[in-house]
Amino acid sequence: MFLHSYLMKKILISLLLLLAVTSWGSAQETDKKESNLNKVVNTLKERLTIEGYTQLAYSYDDSGDAKANTFEIKRAILMVRGKVTDRWTAYFMYNFANTGKILEAYTEYNFLPELTVRLGQFKTMFTFENPMSPCNVELINIYSQATNYLVGYDSSDPLYGSNAGRDLGLMIYGDLFGNLFNYKLAVMNGQGINKKDGNNQKDIVGSLIANPTRWLSVGGTFVKGKGCAVATSAANPNIAVGENYTRNRWSAGAMLKFKPIDIRTEFLHGKDGKVRSNGYYLTLSAHILPRIDFIASYDYFNRNTKMDLQNTNYVAGLQWWFYPKCRLQLQYTRRDPKHGEGSNLLQTQVQVRF
């Protein structure tokens, strides 16, 4: 009996010691796992930036037989920026709206303030407007008619197609003389997003902007290259699908930023084959109340100067910034073509950004 009691005590003490050692080891392992997890989370927080925004709109359009009265998701954007090193970054942008597509995917390395190299898919640095994000631009239709057409933002130029103003290529850019000048120079496919080049020609794209004062920026941009037509165009009927054609553009403009009023204005010119086009816009944003802006724009574009295919848009509206980076917009557009009847467009849009 005594022996049995003694053995039970020994076994119980051994079990308690084993449990204590196991618990201590498990606690150490848990602490180690939690420490490693915390390191991963902290690293991701330091090296990954995730942002996004959505734009939900309603429009009423009385143009021609294609009258529209509809709600729509304009954009649902996710943006991820990864910091590989202090100088080396990667960027990814995806639009979930409509059919969904990759908008941007590139990597870049900052050698100096005067020199950064970017490789991948990104916005074509042509015009003052195209590099601007839709979540900052004043107009619900985003850019002027000439910008949308000449950068291939939408499908208004069937030869180029709908490319969201983006292309694949290699770019260098930077600031010179303490930000007195900003330059960008790129070699690009000229075929648009998510596509290989349609020919053996590359587009050369450049911009040079001078900032002589805090409130004034002036400069110009250009594209020189050859396109490969993806469809036929009524404004340029002599170019067939798959045909290579000269596609050159240039623009000159200015941006003025005063305390109550911002103004952006630009003249744009394009040459597609033998067809020339030109446009001009002036967009004004007046801060009439702390969170409310009055928006006005004059927007002229002639997509074929020989055929005289002119159209002028007059835009007026308001936008209310109800939360940082979030706004409610209301705009009216009167469209006045030289040939044909005028039409009206009423739009409202809610933008939520995080």
Short précis:
The protein is mainly beta and 354 residues long. It is built from 2 helices and 16 strands. A 16-stranded antiparallel β-barrel has the order 1-2-3-4-5-6-7-8-9-10-11-12-13-14-15-16.
Key terms for this structure?
354 residues; mainly beta; Porin; 16-stranded antiparallel beta barrel; 16 strands; 15% helix; 54% strand; globular
Q: Could you give the distance between the termini?
A: 75 Å
Overall radius of gyration: 28 Å
**Any guess at the CATH architecture?**
Beta Barrel
Overall geometry: globular
Strand arrangement within the widest β-sheet reads 1-2-3-4-5-6-7-8-9-10-11-12-13-14-15-16
- Counted by DSSP, the helix tally is 2
Tell me about the biggest sheet? 16 strands, antiparallel, barrel
Average predicted confidence as pLDDT: 91
The chain-level structural class is: mainly beta
**Whole-number tally of structural domains:** 1
Percentage of residues in DSSP E strands: over 45%
H/E element sequence: HEEEEEHEEEEEEEEEEE
Helical fraction equals 10-25%
Q: Any overview of this molecule?
A:
By secondary structure, this protein is mainly beta. It has one domain: Beta Barrel (Porin). The protein has 2 helices and 16 strands. The chain has helices at 2-47, 145-150; strands at 48-61, 68-83, 88-95, 101-112, 115-123, 166-176, 181-188, 203-213, 216-228, 244-257, 261-272, 275-289, 292-302, 310-323, 326-337, 343-353. The longest helix has 46 residues, at 2-47. The N and C termini lie far apart (75 Å). The mean pLDDT is 91.
Topology:
Elements: H1 2-47, E1 48-61, E2 68-83, E3 88-95, E4 101-112, E5 115-123, H2 145-150, E6 166-176, E7 181-188, E8 203-213, E9 216-228, E10 244-257, E11 261-272, E12 275-289, E13 292-302, E14 310-323, E15 326-337, E16 343-353
Antiparallel strand pairs: 1-2, 1-16, 2-3, 3-4, 4-5, 5-6, 6-7, 7-8, 8-9, 9-10, 10-11, 11-12, 12-13, 13-14, 14-15, 15-16
